[in-house]
Amino acid sequence: MIITQKYFLHFPVCETNTPIIYKLVKDYDLEVNIFRALVSSEGEGYLVLDVKGEAGSITKAMEYVASFGVTINSVERGVVRDETLCNHCGNCVSHCKAGALHIADLKTRKVAFDDKLCIACGKCVDNCPMKACSTVF
Amino acid sequence: MKTYNQINDKIASGKAVVLTAEEMKDYIDKYGVRKAAKEIDVVTTATFGPMCSSGVFLNFGHSKPKIRITQCWLDGVMAYSGIAAVDCYLGATQVPDRDPVNSKFPGKFEFGGGHVIEKLVKGETVELFAYSYGTQEYPRRDLRTRITLADMNQAIMVNPRNCYQNYNVAVNCSDKRLYTYLGQLEPNMGNMSYCSACQLSPLLNDPLYETIGVGSVVWLAGARGHVFSEGTQHCPSCLRTENDVPAEGAGTLALTGDLKKMRPEFVRGCSFVGYGASLALGVGIPIPVLNERVAKHLAVRDRDIQAQVIDYSTDYPQRTGNVLGSVNYEQLRSGCVDFMGKKIVTSSLSSYYKALEICEILKAEIKDGTFLLSQPLAQLPVKQGMKPLNIKK
After folding, report:
1. Contact, A10 vs A4, CB < 8 A?
2. What Rg value do the Cα atoms of chain B yield, rounded?
3. How many Å lie between the alpha carbon of B201 and the closest alpha carbon of chain A?
4. Which pLDDT value is given to residue A14?
5. Residues of chain A with C-beta less than 8 angstroms from the C-beta of B334
6. What Å distances lie between residue B18 and A14, A52, B38, B289, CA to CA?
7. Which residue of A has its CA nearest to B355?
8. What is the band of A12 on the pLDDT scale with cuts at 50, 70, 90?
9. In this predicted model, what pLDDT tens digit does every residue of B186-234 receive, in sequence order?
10. Mutate which: B111, B347, B349, vs A, most A CBs within 10 A
11. Contact flag A106-B333 (C-beta cutoff 8 Å)
12. CB-based contact A50:A6 (threshold 8 Å)
């Protein structure tokens, strides 16, 4: 069965020179869509991506990724919204092209965040006057 | 016809009929203006949004030995000290001296006076640093200490301009992104930004200032506050549509209240990339339904309120006076408008959600008899323009 899964990967310092993503495509036959990536000044790597392929292949691929000491997180997307800081003004909504930040109820204009849709572009981070949105990296 | 005293007697005895602004509109649609004027005593209106023209007067108390402060900073943010020995005024938009501002554009403005005010209301400790030239009775030349709101004698919020009756809707007709106090504006009218509590907004429900005037009691971020004057830039002589509703900026209110009694969720420091720091504030104002005329004004809905669309790339900064067109708040609140042949996504800097919440809180306080109304001591000007500043050569 073909599925699409989103991952947030944290690479330890020693593995940023290994072409791990290349292997996912070549050896595990996965389609990879990278949303956000960074190599920090300390040499660590961060990656938010979608992988699409056979469920079994994805599992094996992630075992391969984990063998390098890479931390795999399938919950976090790289962007975090702290609802306690949100005033629900909705300024973020017109800047979120992915539609992850949206008006949940037109009557009250309450803002909601669907992190499955988030592509970690980070536009909300700059656009939130209350700093309710932040990026993990 | 009802009087303030009659309405206050009903509030005190727990018999007042109170509706939120939204509920009142539905009531009028169902039963008409006449019945609404007879049956409903008070309608609660509210707004929650960035209000730059805000700040607090603080009194620190006297140190031993005493100091006559000439310059002071709270968490690195300068407060105006050109008043008495240990008084100062901390403005919402003041940023720390060390902030790089827009020297590397766009600046982030992550901290400012509004954030210090938020910290104080939360009960957090801030650092006070002060200088003086020293006098015989105030010998101390400097001090550095930590202080909380509870340590201060008074902390009085005094806001020269809040609750703009209506406001510009911003777009960007240029080909590069703009960073403004109405948020980031994408090139080629890529988005449209507004800032109003729309049909919940106090002055849109009392367009000719018949109940809201100098001395009116208001709900200021949870505290009992007052209107102490017309706000700065109060400009009631403006374009008005049916039912006296202003279609541009128009009136403003100057508000004051005790910071010590405010609730932190309604006093929030905020940051606008490329523009500066500010303070988002929640204000609720009860409108006594004195007569049918007041009730008729309370019937106003989003679709009846027009706002002017202004290009913030040229017309706003250059003060050309050019207006691209008008849209109404029903269109704006829908999230997308058709404007000049283009579908444009909209968003707000003012929180309708929080304004609704304040309407409900104020309604509950009036219903349980703890919030009484006050008759204005003086009416706000109804005819008055606004002068520009002409640069003399």
Report:
1. no
2. 22
3. 14
4. 67
5. 106
6. 66, 56, 12, 10
7. A108
8. confident
9. 999 999 999 999 999 999 999 999 999 999 999 999 999 999 999 999 9
10. B347
11. yes
12. yes
Prediction ipTM score: 0.93
| Chain B environment of A127 (Cβ under 8 Å) | 183-184, 273
Chain A closest-CA separation from residue B10 CA (Å): 30
Helix ranges (H only) for B77-210 are 113-121, 202-205
Read off the pLDDT of residues B68-99 as tens digits, 9 standing for 90 and up.
999 999 999 999 999 999 999 999 999 999 99
Tokens of residue B250, six digits: 């128009």
Over residues B34-63, the pLDDT tens digits come to 999 999 999 999 999 999 999 999 999 999
Report the relative pairing of strands A79-81 and A45-54 from DSSP bridges: unpaired
CB contact under 8 A, B335 and A129: no
Burial class (CB in 10 A: 0-12, 13-18, 19+), B200: buried
- CB-CB: which of A88, A91, A95 is closest to B353? A88
Chain A residues with CB under 8 Å of B189 CB are none
pLDDT in tens, B113-123: 999 999 999 99
* Domains, chain A, with CATH or none: 2-73 (3.30.70.260), 81-130 (3.30.70.20)
Q: What are the chain A neighbours of B192 within 8 Å (beta carbons)?
A: 94
Q: CB–CB of B334/B344 below 8 Å?
A: no
**Res A61 pLDDT > 90:** yes
Please judge whether B183 and A129 are an interchain contact, meaning their C-beta atoms are less than 8 angstroms apart: yes
Helix, strand, coil percent values for chain B (each to nearest 5)? 20, 30, 45
Please tell me the least confidently modeled range out of A18-32, B166-180, B373-387.
Answer: A18-32
Helix (H) or strand (E) holding B33, with range, is helix B21-39
Size of interface A-B (CB pairs under 8 A): 74
B48 burial class (0-12, 13-18, 19+ CB within 10 angstroms)?
buried
Task: Say yes or no to pLDDT of A97 above 80.
Answer: yes
Query: Measuring CA to CA, which residue among A78, A75, A91, A74 is closest to residue A45?
Result: A78
Question: Left (φ > 0), alpha (ψ -120 to 50) or beta: where does B266 sit?
Answer: alpha
* Chain A residues with beta carbon closer than 8 angstroms to that of B335: 93-94, 103, 106
A13 compared with B20, residue with greater pLDDT: B20
Q: Do A93 and B268 touch (CB under 8 A)?
A: no
